[in-house]
Request: fold
Amino acid sequence: MSSAAIDLPEITVVSFNIQVGIGSHRARHMLLHGWRYVMPHGQSLKNLERIAAMLRGADIAGLNEADAGSFRSQYVNQAGFLAEKAGFPYWEQQRTRDFGDLAQHSNSMLSRWAIRSVDRHFLPSFMKGRGILETRHELYGHPLTVCITHLGLSRHARFTQVRDLAKRLQGRRGVILMGDFNCTVRSPEMRLLLSESGLQAPPWSPPTFPSWAPRLAFDHILCSPDLEFVSMESIPEPLSDHLAVRARLRFRPTAPADADCPAPETAPAQRKDRLPDNP
Reply:
């Protein structure tokens, strides 16, 4: 590895399915805590506090299953709560399933860098509720696009969704794609995504599910070829039914960079009383 590559700034990225703050970390919790998907409970804010502590070392965090503020979350927008508690100045959210006061499913991202623009895309699905949250940033002279997604449970749905993803991301530079893909990197649908999009997987994909005895690598961080992985690991803190994954990335030395570009901007966390509608 060249010294030029070592001098380039690194990005610490975390992807985490937070399971609406339920905090399942035993097999029996999946049955005993099932009611927490629809009803408020006293432990949720304490669980979110623990998740915030785990996220503090990241530059960018992608979240799946963060409630956007409904009865079951005590009307707390969980992404905004985590942004404030973990010290992220910027955050965005995509409601993927809006059940009004009952539940507000979302993909969310937290960032230390200003968000220049945002798009929200739906992915094809038998039942509406799968999407991509796409944000764009400027990082030390490099344009960077971050995409957060959560793919379907059935293989048929995932094949349709990865074809859509690959078409959107094919040939693009400065891209990080992450989320709960519900499949391993060796699955046919993941091989299709990597082949058709040009994105790359890390050298090793740590198992993340179930968090109490991880056997399956369902949570992924992928990037375009102008970025490279410095490290990839799971975070062994069972704060959900999934473990979080953390990667350190950097731009390859052939990518242009502006040495005079200022460090990441800081500002109070951008909270939203009303989120823009999905397109």
Q: What stands out?
A: Helices lie at 3-7, 29-32, 44-55, 78-86, 155-169, 188-197.
